[in-house]
């Protein structure tokens, strides 16, 4: 048997990937599985962006680029931060990586020493705690209840900060809850952070363009300019631009951190794909009317799924301000019995029951640090979502 490094014991395989694997296996067995487990828009990359990628190949943009992004892409990102967020970065304050995931990973590796603490509001994106552990740090997960809109409060933050606190992870709108912070809420967190100069913030804004019901996206570095030098503002093209497979993410932050991230990336992956970078330039600089069209489709799907799922005895969910997820309480199903006689003790049992009985793949809240809940992604085709909700209702009606 191979003796693996001890660090491999500190992390778990991604729960979302595990569910998708099981769903794929069932699909291969011929079952009609509806997967609501993955956070990926079902739309194709808009044609003008895809063409920019093809053009890059034809023009021979197929070689290494600068490690942390081409100057052209960095300029497009600077312009994006100015236009959308009123954030003023220079190109040497920008880092481009293979997805927002790599940018966050680089940042944590560049920031965290052993025993440093990183505050992570829960429910959280599955990758944050494991990334912190891999970097040698300690994740400090703070439960943010539905009664507080799944959002970290200033009081909670202040109570959690210790001399070892190095970093705070913020994600708005959030995965898995869709919770979005209002300007005043960020300002209140900012007031606390101003008193603790050793705390750095990674603001993960990857779902920026997915905002509903008049909720206005805003980001910490813009709301609290005094913190500008202590924030890495992370974003990317995966979610908003339907470009998950192109693997381009980026961050804006202090020069010394950006340089350190480039040093790391230079020893790991070097530059993100040159072709994808060219496509990302077109995404950021080109026409963006499709964002409004996609958003309207997502809003309709959100409303449809919320109405259908809230009507099911035992389930309830709040309206998310953004992103494309519903985080659903299944407290009302706990301790109920399936027709096969199994008692649903945990959200993991509920997710397994829904996969086996309704053939619908969802992700248990346990994976995101809050139980008993589960997450669905409504970034799937509208008809399939409708059918999935019907199947979930049917399956739940068999519980006693
Ligand atoms: N941040 C959050 C909260 C996410 O949900 C994801 C993807 O699921 C990412 C970052 C990373 O996205 P990507 O690496 O595709 O840019």
Q: Your description of this structure?
A:
It contains 13 helices and 13 strands. It is of the alpha/beta class and 400 residues long. The chain has two domains: 147 residues, Alpha-Beta Complex (Aspartate Aminotransferase, domain 1), CATH 3.90.1150.10; 223 residues, 3-Layer(aba) Sandwich (Aspartate Aminotransferase, domain 2). β9 and β10 form a beta hairpin. α2 packs antiparallel against α10.
Q: What's the short story on this structure?
A:
The chain is an alpha/beta fold and 400 residues long. The protein has 13 helices and 13 strands. α2 (47-58) runs antiparallel to α10 (274-285), α3 packs parallel to α10 (274-285) and α6 (154-160) runs parallel beside α7.
Task: Give the topology, please.
Layout (H helix, E strand, L loop, with lengths): L14 H14 L5 E2 L11 H12 L12 H15 L8 E4 L1 H13 L5 E6 L4 H8 L3 E6 L10 H7 L4 E7 L11 H12 L5 E5 L15 H4 L7 E6 L12 E4 L2 H14 L5 H12 L3 H22 L5 E2 L7 E5 L17 H12 L1 E2 L1 E2 L8 E5 L4 H16 L3
Parallel strand pairs: 1-11, 3-4, 3-5, 5-6, 6-7
Antiparallel strand pairs: 2-8, 7-8, 9-10, 10-13, 12-13
Helix pairs in contact: 2-10, 3-10, 4-5, 4-9, 6-7, 11-13, 12-13
The site of pyridoxal-5'-phosphate has 13 residues, from helix 4.
């Amino acid at each position: 048997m191979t003796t693996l490094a001890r660090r491999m014991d500190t992390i778990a395989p991604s729960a979302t990937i595990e569910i998708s694997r099981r769903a794929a296996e069932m699909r291969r067995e011929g079952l009609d599985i509806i997967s609501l487990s993955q956070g990926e828009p079902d739309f194709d990359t808009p044609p003008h962006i895809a063409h920019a990628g093809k053009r890059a190949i034809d023009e021979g943009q197929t070689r290494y680029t600068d490690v942390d992004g081409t100057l052209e892409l960095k300029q497009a990102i600077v312009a994006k931060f100015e236009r959308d967020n009123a954030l003023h970065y220079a190109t040497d304050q920008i880092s481009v990586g293979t997805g927002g995931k790599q940018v966050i990973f680089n940042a944590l590796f560049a920031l965290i020493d052993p025993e440093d603490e990183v505050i992570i509001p829960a429910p959280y994106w599955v990758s944050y705690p494991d990334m912190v552990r891999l970097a040698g740090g300690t994740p400090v997960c703070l439960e943010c209840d539905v009664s507080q809109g799944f959002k970290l409060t200033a009081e909670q933050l202040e109570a959690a900060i210790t001399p070892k606190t190095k970093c705070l992870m913020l994600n708005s709108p959030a995965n898995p809850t869709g919770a979005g912070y209002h300007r005043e809420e960020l300002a209140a967190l900012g007031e606390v952070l101003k008193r603790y100069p050793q705390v750095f913030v990674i603001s993960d804004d990857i779902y920026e363009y997915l905002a509903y019901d008049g909720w206005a996206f805003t980001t910490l570095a813009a709301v609290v300019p005094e913190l500008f030098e202590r924030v890495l503002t992370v974003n990317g093209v995966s979610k908003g631009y339907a470009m998950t497979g192109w693997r381009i993410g980026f961050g804006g932050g202090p020069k010394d951190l950006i340089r350190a991230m480039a040093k790391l990336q230079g020893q790991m992956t070097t530059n993100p794909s040159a072709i994808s970078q060219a496509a990302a330039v077109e995404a950021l600089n080109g026409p963006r009317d499709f964002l409004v069209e996609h958003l309207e489709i997502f809003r309709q799907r959100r409303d449809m799924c919320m109405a259908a799922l809230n009507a099911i005895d035992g389930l309830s969910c709040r309206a998310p301000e953004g992103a494309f997820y519903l985080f659903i309480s299944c407290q009302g199903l706990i301790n109920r019995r399936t027709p096969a006689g199994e008692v649903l003790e945990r959200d993991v049992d509920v997710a397994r029951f829904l996969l086996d009985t309704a053939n619908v793949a969802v992700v248990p809240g346990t994976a995101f640090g809050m139980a008993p809940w589960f997450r669905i992604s409504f970034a799937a085709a509208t008809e399939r979502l409708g059918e999935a909700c019907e199947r979930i209702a049917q399956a739940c009606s068999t519980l006693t």
